[in-house]
Amino acid sequence: MLVKLDKPVLLAKAVEIISELVTEVRMKFSEFGLSIVAIDPANVAMVGFRLPKSIFSQFEAGEEVLGINLDNLKQVLKRCGSGSSLILEKKENLLSIQIQDRIKRNFTLNLIDIESEEKELPDLEYSSKIEMDSVDLIASVEDCAVVADACSFIIQDGKFIIEAKGLNSARSEFSGDEAKIEAENCKAKYSLEYMQKFMKGAKLCDKSILQFANDHPLKLEFRTGEMDLIFILAPRVETED
Q1: Which residues have a Cβ under 8 Å from the Cβ of 93 and sit 6 or more positions away?
Q2: Which of 93, 103, 138, 199 is most buried per CB count within 10 Å?
Q3: 0.85 cut: is pTM over it?
Q4: Which fold does the domain 128-233 belong to in CATH?
Q5: In terms of CATH architecture, what is 2-110?
Q6: Among residues 187, 197, 186, which one has the least CA distance to residue 220?
Q7: Read out DSSP for 3-61?
């Protein structure tokens, strides 16, 4: 297996984001490109990442699955500069990483055995779909994080509301003028600790797509045309005493 990326910045940023959720992943290479699907240790969040084959300037790989420590890979990818190209090559039980810019630099990472079944993102049904500017979503989530540890996503009379309530509160409201809203009335609550991690993915693209339903997992999609980064987040269900 040997693949080459002339612009490794998207891979580097995605690995950094994913590494905040999981430390070890199965990195899959196939005829479609590179993909990662993983669940965080608390079973609260799931992440899916894909770089299509067309993004690679060289792609010589069949069906390969590599067990990778993301913290180690993240540190190596940080060594890429803006004009660097990146070559990944599997050599026995090692991943050879070559960074090419003014000089050639070589790293090797030990591949690891990850005892787990191959995962796929679940095919869930949603009653609401929102497409909005990523900067607005990021700002609304950060507003909520100032006052609480969870935020609610609400569809009410054709409007999309992001709010957090504790002793203090924060609220952002979007109409069809600010966001594309295809939804029926519903409400779900999500952890802001996870949402803040996901917002680093929102910074990679102009638009964000959210799908949710009453007390239902949230699906967040960040797509640039060069990569797909998708998160699934379990809801916080309020229990009555």
Answers
A1: 110, 111
A2: 199
A3: yes
A4: DNA Polymerase III; Chain A, domain 2 (3.10.150)
A5: Box (3.70)
A6: 197
A7: EEES-THHHHHHHHHHTTT-SEEEEEEETTEEEEEEE-TTSSEEEEEEEEGGG-SEEE-
